[in-house]
Every structure is written in structure tokens, then in C-alpha cells.
């Protein structure tokens, strides 16, 4: 009969006892430590091997918010709203002693006065460019007020993490897991299930493929999660307490908001060509 991923229950104890000589109890409530998992330890640094672009998983309504920023005109140039994903048609720009500009929805604006002043908008980056007519000196130091709406999801994606994930550092303490990626984000979680190999008549596992399922959540953003499997090849020889776990692999999903990215990462003496996971939604 093939091994299968099963929730950790008291029924799992018999299998694990054959492996390590101690009872493999149920997962305790909360974040308690269950040392019975330590016989197959996945602690190490895992480099990403394959990745795909994050996809929209649906189920979340895209929302918008209104905001405004005030700055000072210092000559023709670009000015940031501080928010990515501006909503076309929502931007207004007012420059003291000059006038107001209204968003046409196509990156251009209409000026309230008759002078040849122009303002253009970069919706994606959240920037505006001011180009006043000749003799800008009288306007230097004047207050510039920018009102706008922005897409909350786009702004959050741009603010949280621009760097791709290329490796994960995993620390396992029994059933408890802590991940940290190369961008500095930390994820806390635990093992939720296991694939138990069969021991021989004397209670030894000489060789087997081990698999744990896990879930972990970012400690700084509850909408960012890792979930999937840890797997490796166990070579235990004739000992219940020592052996080799090779070909250790993380096969998991990275999710943030509506975005989901499947990836694989490995630890061990293998050649790696990392492609990285996009952290964007």
C-alpha cells in the first residue's frame, strides 16, 4: 500500500516509534514543541530551483483608497505620491499661484488657466511630472498639493517586497518551523502531516522516502504564507537513532493576497540554477 499524507494523530505513534524509539504523539495545540519529529530534521538553506509567476487566485475584491500629499515646487521635475497604482482619472494637482490640473485618465491633464503649463502622470509608479512654462523662478518654493486614488493591492505589493526570493533558510525544532528568505522576511509555522514509511520486523527503517506537510505564515504580514511539503530520502542503516536524510526538498506554494506562486527549493550537494519567485501579487 502506498504511503499517504495524513494528519498527525495518535495513530501515527506506532509508525514513528519504530523509527526513533520514542512515541510520535499528536500535534499539540498552539505552538508547543513535539520533539518526536526531530529524527528527520530539515534544518538548512534551500536554494530555489524552479518558480512560476504569481497568479490571481480570485476571491478578493480589489479596493481603492484616497490620499493626498503636499510638497514644494523646486523647478520642473518629477514628484512622487508615495503610492504605486494610481487610479486613472483620479489625480488632481494644485500649484499655489499657478492653478489646478485635472487628470484626463490617459496620463495627461487639463490646466485650469491659459498658460502653457503641463503635468503628466505615471499611474504605475505613482509619480507626476510638472513642466511649467518659461520663467519658473517666481514659482520656486510654492506649495504643490496632489490628490489621488490608488489601488490598495498594487501599492502594498510595491511597498512590501521588490526583490525576488532565491533562497530560504529553514530551522526545524521538532514540529515547529521557522523560515527566513533572502529578503529578510520571516515565516513561522509547523508540520501538519506526515508520510510514514514501514519499518521491518525489528523496527528499523533502512531506506525510505520521508515527507512532511507544513504551513507557515509571515510574522509581519498574515496574508503572506508558505504551504507545501518537505521531503527527503532516509538512509538509516541498522540504527534507530542515526542516518542520512539526503535530497531534501521544499515543494510549496507562496501566497500573498490574491497571488499564488508554486516553487521548488533544494538543500544538499546539488548544482543549483536559481530563478527566483516574484514577490508581487
Structure explained in plain terms:
- By secondary structure, this protein is mainly β.
- The protein has two domains: 6-58 and 160-267, no CATH class; 64-155.
- Helices cover 6% and strands 44% of the residues.
- The protein has helices at 13-20, 152-160, and strands at 6-7, 44-51, 55-56, 64-72, 77-80, 92-95, 99-103, 109-111, 118-122, 127-131, 143-151, 167-173, 176-181, 186-195, 207-218, 224-235, 244-256, 259-267.
- Strands 2-12-13-14-15-16-17-18 form an eight-stranded antiparallel beta barrel. A five-stranded antiparallel β-sheet has the order 4-11-6-7-8.
- Strand 9 (118-122) and strand 10 (127-131) form a beta hairpin.
- The longest helix has 9 residues, at 152-160.
- The protein starts with 5 loop residues before the first strand and ends in a 14-residue tail after the last strand.
